[in-house]
Amino acid sequence: MGLFDNFLKSADKEENKMKINWVPLNDKTQLSEIINISSDKPVLIFKHSTRCGISRMVLKNFESDYDIPETEMGLYFLDLLNYRALSQDIAAKFNVMHQSPQVLVIKNGAVIYHDSHDYISVGKIKELLKS
Fold this sequence. Notes:
Shape: globular
CATH architecture: 3-Layer(aba) Sandwich
Order of helices and strands: HEHEHEHEEH
Number of helices: 5
CATH topology: Glutaredoxin
CATH superfamily: Glutaredoxin
CATH class: Alpha Beta
Number of domains: 1
Distance between the termini: 45 Å
């Protein structure tokens, strides 16, 4: 019965997982939108390489840990393979070196958190929101 119990717990965890409503980031004009929104609430940009296994794993872990309400943070998703130039625009605009996978949190038009790979942490982001 132990295996069956683990299966049920896993199913319950999946049901409780928050669905993330990513806004696709695919146009440079959206950077102005992000800056404007960030004066009301922080905005997170997730830069993801769709062909990279590490990026896929980090995204999956991020999405399973993420439980911040939509009212507290805007969420944008950048597909790096299709929008590489836009990723470079983001790096230049916010003065943060491009990496993949990478998360940036923008508040009042400035980056208040950025990290990449295994260092991306929902817990760190939640701490920032409290301060």
